[in-house]
Amino acid sequence: MTALSTLVDLISRHAADDGLHSTAIPGVSLARAAAPTVAMPVVYEPTLCLIAQGRKRVIAGGRSFVYDAASYLVASIDIPVMGSVIEASEREPYLCLVLDLDMTALSDLALRHPAPADRSAVPAAGIELNDTSPELFEAAVRLARLLDTPQHIDELAPLAVREILYRLLTGSGHGVLRQLANADSRLRQIAKAIAWLRGHYTEGCRIEDMAEVAGMSRSTFHTHFKAVTSMSPLAFRSQLRLQEAQRLMVAQAVDAAAAGYRVGYESPSQFSRDYRRLFGVPPAEDARRLRQEAPVALS
């Protein structure tokens, strides 16, 4: 069996049902879908998404990323996206290994294995696709195989995760990860501001507040924020608000007006306009549709 077919087998056995499944390995989840899914909002945190079978589309700030087993996705910041499985069937379901990025291990590896300095003042994008190498699949198989021998996870999983991070750092798409590992990089400064924003998005925070957290001037912050997220800071905040409002309406049956108010909107009409612009339909109609369809949560 090739590394890819072995990974398909491992994920199939440990994620027998559709959905996103946590595992006994810290920071590792497995995703499965036996059919294409509707686009659903989710906030990606720093993570690696390695597809073994099927295909997925992720939209962030108007940019579309379509990937499968030939390429992996890395999210380097907390970023709201719309994600949908676009290729999957009962016979060949979508299967994906999701790994949370360990910043301590990543930073240590970056110091041990330095690369030529990147002189670009522009931070890397918050989401990137890169070609998947055979070595990366082999490392992923070594990690996933530990699910068959849970007694070895505590000792061997950190080594397998470290190998995966090493493959990412030394592969062709290492730029974003090296910027993420560098505490002084523009990407890390933007990531710090985004983390603050996720805790304050229901408030009337200003761009100046976010820029101060990032340690940048207002104009510099706005430029670098858009380079990383493909969104302006205020558009990013709006998407966080609207995704949370959708969750409140679907999961807690909160009515549209109350949901808009709870996420920071003072005007119901403005909430409805922004919601329709992002999701394509009015909030109450969208909530009814999603409750009926009962979408499967996937990374």
Descriptive account of the structure:
By secondary structure, the chain is of the alpha+beta class. The two termini are 27 Å apart. 39% of the residues are buried. The chain contains twelve helices and ten strands. Helix content is 47%, strand content 20%. The protein has a domain at 3-181: Jelly Rolls (Sandwich), CATH 2.60.120. The protein is globular and about 55 Å long. It has a six-stranded antiparallel β-sheet with strand order 1-2-9-4-7-10. It has a four-stranded antiparallel β-sheet with strand order 3-8-5-6. Helix 3 runs antiparallel to helix 4 (153-170). It has helices at 3-14, 103-112, 134-145, 153-170, 175-181, 186-198, 207-214, 218-229, 233-251, 256-262, 268-279, 283-293; strands spanning 19-22, 28-33, 40-44, 47-53, 55-60, 63-67, 71-75, 79-87, 94-100, 127-131. Residues 191-289 form the HTH araC/xylS-type domain. Pfam families: AraC_N, HTH_18. Keywords: Transcription, Transcription regulation. InterPro entries: Homeodomain-like_sf, HTH_AraC, Tscrpt_reg_HTH_AraC_N. One of its GO terms (molecular function) is sequence-specific DNA binding.
List keywords for this structure.
single chain, 299 residues, alpha+beta, Jelly Rolls, 6-stranded antiparallel sheet, 4-stranded antiparallel sheet, 10 strands, 47% helix, Tscrpt_reg_HTH_AraC_N, DNA-binding transcription factor activity, sequence-specific DNA binding
Quick one: biggest sheet? 6 strands, antiparallel
Distance between the termini: 27 Å
Please, how many helices?
12
CATH architecture type of the domain at 3-181? Sandwich
Low-confidence stretches: none
> What is the CATH H-level superfamily of the domain at 3-181?
Regulatory protein AraC
Helices and strands: which structural class?
alpha+beta
CATH class of the domain at 3-181: Mainly Beta
Strand share of the residues? 15-25%
What is CATH's topology name of the domain at 3-181?
Answer: Jelly Rolls
Radius of gyration: 20 Å
Helical coverage, percent range: 40-55%
Order of helices and strands: HEEEEEEEEEHEHHHHHHHHHH
